[in-house]
Write a structure and sequence with these properties.
Structural class of chain A: mainly alpha
Number of domains of chain A: 1
Largest interface: A-B, 19 and 19 residues
Largest sheet of chain A: none
Helix content of chain A: 55-70%
Order of helices and strands of chain A: HHHHH
Oligomer: homodimer
Number of strands of chain A: 0
Radius of gyration of chain A: 18 Å
Shape of chain A: elongated
């Protein structure tokens, strides 16, 4: 676990080999599941709204396209492998899907890495 | 336009080369469009119903799957080429999407062919 930059964040390569304690795993799992549920809730609300407004056939295929897009995006984004979890959390924070508060319990250096990659 | 079977229906090969008068084309187009509209109306109603009932994420992807299936089925089935139109109409009649009444104006031998291929 070599190069810690002066920001306290790990380098890209190191992140893939980070060790997660069982406490950290529990925090991560909970935060991940919450963000996923939020994302899915939003898609459910949006799908219902779009379905209500369907008036012509093209609206149907727009809804289909919307669902396919959201499903593939969610599949791609919600990747619970410890080797990429820092980036997943950074992305969720950048997109306002998760608050730093919900990641309390992770080590300071993990939090610093998440903050660093969450920067626009 | 050789072999007319004794039922008055054309053979499979002959059907692909049938001539359609402009009156027949108008009848065919109207019947085709009506059946397509019925099919699409049904999908719109069903999609709204399914969307209303969405309670969990799997319901979302079931809706997506339903839409994809119906779209590909409709694309495949509603093929307005004169070389296949007899079979398209036969299929629509067999599935109760079109009545023989709506095809009045087509030649008797075309109607006989449609009836023949509409048989289960």
């Amino acid at each position: 676990m070599g190069s810690l930059p002066h920001t306290g964040a790990y380098s890209y390569g190191d992140i893939q080999n980070l060790k997660w304690s069982s406490t950290e795993k529990a925090v991560a799992r909970k935060a991940f599941d919450r963000a996923l549920q939020r994302e899915l809730d939003e898609v459910m609300i949006e799908a219902k709204k779009r379905a209500e407004k369907i008036q012509e056939p093209s609206d149907l295929w727009d809804l289909e396209h919307f669902l396919t897009q959201r499903r593939t995006q969610i599949d791609r984004q919600f990747d619970y492998r410890y080797s990429v979890l820092i980036f997943v959390f950074a992305d969720l924070i950048r997109r306002g899907r998760l608050s730093g508060q919900e990641l309390q319990g992770l080590s300071e250096d993990k939090l610093a890495s998440i903050r660093r990659y969450a920067e626009p």
